[in-house]
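Lab channel / #folding
Pinned by the channel admin:
"Please post every new chain as: sequence first, then the structure tokens as a reply. Keep commentary short and put observations after the output so the thread stays searchable."

First post following the new format, from NK:
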Amino acid sequence: MTITGRLAGKVALITGTGGGQGRVAALRFAAEGAIVVGCDVTAAGQDETIALVQQAGGVMHGTRGAVDLVSSATATAWVQDAVAEHGRIDILYNNASAARFAPIDAMTDDDWHFTLRNELDLVFFVSRAAWPHLSRPGGVVINVGSTAGWAGSPGAGTLAHNATKGAVIAMTRQLAVEGAPDGIRAVSLSPGFVRTPGTAAFLDNPDIRAKLTARIPLGRPGEPEEIVATALFLASNEASFLTGTDILVDGGSRAV
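Reply from TO:
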């Protein structure tokens, strides 16, 4: 990993930093000089990430405890606390999400609404709260979509996930339109199948792993660091002419 300092002094709010891609993002953004403000629904994971960032010499602030952003009031309070501490927001990285999977004839109302709350509502709540405080010009919103927002998944029961991630990608385009006059960019990135704690069980099963990677031209799952490297570029000044688009980080699966 090459450290360039390209986020030096920027205030970056990252959701879902208690593990997985969010933890990798907190570590990498802090290493590149950002002041990271994170949160997670898992208190222990969030506390561990803060400790890891600080041990590595980075700067990370955030609530030491569980923060559930599906509550509008909680999302607003988290953002306002960050602004009170740092005065502005340069980067908002909407990483946090959670979904439930079932085919349409087995999906319950609770499964559907759980996924909408945890993959769409929280992106809206946090983005709305952060919007007045984004740096003008130079602020950027990065939303995590998914290849599920582009195509269905045979036998995977991803109906609600497809719906929410497609909506996140569409929301990003509208944010780009609304933010452009003030110099605010909005972009989304859509990972394919990525190695995370949540996908470990699939990767540990040789048969399931083979089926999942068969549709990836590069022949392997992505790594969290590869997704975060893309987000780092999108957050940096190097991407200053990039807005209103979705970046697929999927090993070529959408090319097939």
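NK: The chain has a mean pLDDT of 94.
TO: also worth noting, The longest helix spans residues 109-130.
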